[in-house]
Specification:
five-stranded parallel sheet; Rossmann fold; 10 helices
Length: about 250
């Protein structure tokens, strides 16, 4: 067996073990979040999803995705996207006030739910998003790492997990890298773990909706026969409140 084969196998096992822990430790919280989201769908509310930097990959996972919820509105600002400027995106996430600006444009209601994706959970933008939403009476789901937050500088005074309604913990270690296991320098796991949590939530949501007779607004792939037609009603219903669908 070659060294490369052993290395690849070790990393795969590491990821599988991590995801198993994520699923087990978040079981109860995922049930709670599924209830929040289901209530928002029944009230014809909006699921807002937000993040900064590489956490915007999680936001992309939630929006206009085959099998995903059509009532999701992504919340972001171009300054937060690393491809628009890596250094400036870090500065924007640490700047107080941007979250309030972004949420005022999006609008919030008590029957909505705000998801904030931030593994470190300590910068002004994610923390202030949660604080603004909580002040508006909107439930906040933090998708974060409690362990990473504990070791990161508390730039906003408190952590995202401390101000959220419910916390989904992606269990990402401080620094995000996972390989080699005993001295990690590469293979950040936050994107994988966070996407897994979101899809664990979608599975629970589908099951709960079936039990209660709720019709979920789910996208079909635009690249399968009948997909465009199936999505047309959803687009008509949500496009006025979710401008990113235009």
């Amino acid at each position: 067996m070659t060294t490369d084969t052993v290395t690849g196998s070790d990393y795969g096992n590491l990821v599988r073990t991590h995801l198993t822990r994520v699923e087990q430790q978040n079981a109860a919280a995922l049930d709670d979040v599924a209830e929040l989201v289901l209530a928002a769908v029944q009230a014809d509310g909006t699921i807002l999803t937000a993040g900064a930097g590489h956490s915007l990959a999680a936001v992309a996972e939630t929006f206009y995705r085959a099998g995903g919820l059509a009532c999701v509105r992504p919340i972001y600002h171009p300054e937060l996207l690393p491809m628009h400027g890596a250094i400036s995106s870090t500065a924007a996430e640490r700047r107080s006030g941007l979250a309030g600006e972004v949420l005022r444009e999006a609008g919030l209601a008590p029957h909505d739910v705000l998801f904030v994706f931030s593994t470190s959970g300590v910068n002004h933008y994610p923390v202030e998003l949660a604080q603004e939403a909580a002040n508006a009476g909107c439930p906040v789901v933090a998708v974060t790492s409690v362990a990473a937050s504990a070791q990161a500088p508390r730039r906003a005074g408190v952590t995202l997990a401390e101000v959220a309604t419910v916390v989904l913990d992606n269990l990402v270690p401080p620094g995000d890298s996972t390989y080699p296991e005993h001295a990690p320098v590469t293979a950040a796991i936050s994107t994988v773990a966070t996407a897994f949590l979101w899809n664990l939530l979608m599975v629970r949501l589908v099951d709960k909706a079936a039990e209660t007779g709720v019709q979920l607004p789910l996208w079909r792939s635009a690249n399968v026969e009948g997909g465009d037609a199936a999505n047309a009603d959803l687009l008509r219903h949500y496009q006025t409140r979710i401008p990113q669908l235009g």
